[in-house]
Design goal:
The chain has 291 residues and is an alpha/beta fold. The protein contains eleven helices and 13 strands. Bound molecules: uridine 5'-triphosphate. Uridine 5'-triphosphate binds next to helix 5.
Length: 291
């Protein structure tokens, strides 16, 4: 059985929900307190034992490449001023096995993943969306790798969502429970409305896929929203090989959404050593003021 060593992080979307901020800044570079969202994703990949990461970028995404490159001037400056702690923080993002490829036009998540065909080759791999920050004792990507080690099959992470929100997600039609947290799946449906949704189990931003997905993606027609949807290709894959769904029990921050971004900032700020005490005091005072 081949080991899961590679991750794809699609980051070529337009980020329209964050306009005007994303007119000139990649949404993946928007910070949670002091760290760009994409760095959380890269850290999760490394914590899961991933060895090689491909980031799919597009127009205006150059700062992502710069963020993970060394910055000689800045490093020299911090070093000469003895700012060792900051220097360590800056150097943390270099020396990772990162690769970049451009998606020429944002034709959809499926199309973004297809750009990674040559990078992936004939191996199982993970897709990690920068929109979702996942917190759990075992990184979610590692949980999916553990599932793969048991089943040797593609597995997607899913979570219960309110029924009114099914049209924002890919939704699974669960067939049977394999164990406490794993389902076999009858169908995968992209963005169904609540009347048509087969369940309230939504695909969240972590996928472990087998390389057969690429042949399907090459012939994939546009689906919901006129985009080439990864969910549609996964539904086809499930007809020839098993694709499982693993339920995530940890905390998910939907940082592709304004409210999710604010929640992530507040909760991370309440843990950050530089802000936790003063933020707690501020929030307590604010609560009194608004009540
Ligand atoms: P989203 O649809 O959430 O991202 O895609 P978006 O299009 O950037 O956001 P909004 O809705 O306009 O605000 C999920 C992920 O897939 C990537 C995005 O960068 C995001 O991480 N994506 C999407 C691509 O890489 N290419 C695409 O063509 C579409």
């Amino acid at each position: 059985m081949k080991k899961v060593r590679k991750a794809i992080i699609p980051a070529a979307g337009l980020g329209t929900r964050f306009l005007p901020a994303t007119k000139a800044i990649a949404k993946e570079m928007l910070p949670i307190v002091d760290k760009p969202t994409i760095q959380f994703i890269v850290e999760e990949a490394l914590a899961a034992g991933i060895e090689d990461i491909l980031i799919v970028t597009g127009k205006g995404k150059r700062p992502i490449e710069d963020h993970f490159d060394s910055n000689f001037e800045l490093e020299q400056n911090l070093s000469s001023k003895g700012k060792t702690e900051l220097l360590n923080i800056v150097e943390e993002t270099t020396g990772i096995n990162l690769h970049f490829i451009r998606q020429k036009r944002p034709l959809g998540l499926g199309h973004a993943v297809l750009q990674a065909k040559a990078f992936v080759g004939d191996e199982p791999f993970v897709v990690m969306l920068g929109d979702d920050i996942m917190v759990d004792q075992t990184p979610l990507t590692k949980q999916l790798i553990n599932c793969y080690d048991d089943t040797n099959a593609a597995t997607l992470a899913v979570m219960q969502i309110p029924e009114s929100e099914t049209s924002k997600y890919g939704i699974i039609d669960p067939e049977a429970a394999v164990n406490d947290s794993l389902y076999s799946v009858r169908r995968f449906v992209e963005k169904p409305n609540s009347e048509e949704a087969p369940s309230n189990l939504a695909i969240i931003g972590r996928y472990l896929l087998t390389p057969e997905i690429f042949t399907i993606l090459e012939g994939q027609k546009p689906g919901a929203g006129g985009e080439i949807q990864l969910t549609d290709a996964i539904d086809t894959l499930n007809q020839t090989q098993r694709v499982f769904a693993h339920t995530f029990q940890g905390t998910r921050y939907d940082v592709g959404d304004k409210l999710g971004m604010l929640e992530a900032n507040i909760e991370y700020g309440l843990k950050h050593p530089d802000t936790k005490d003063s933020l707690k005091t501020y929030l307590k005072e604010l609560l009194i003021k608004i009540n």
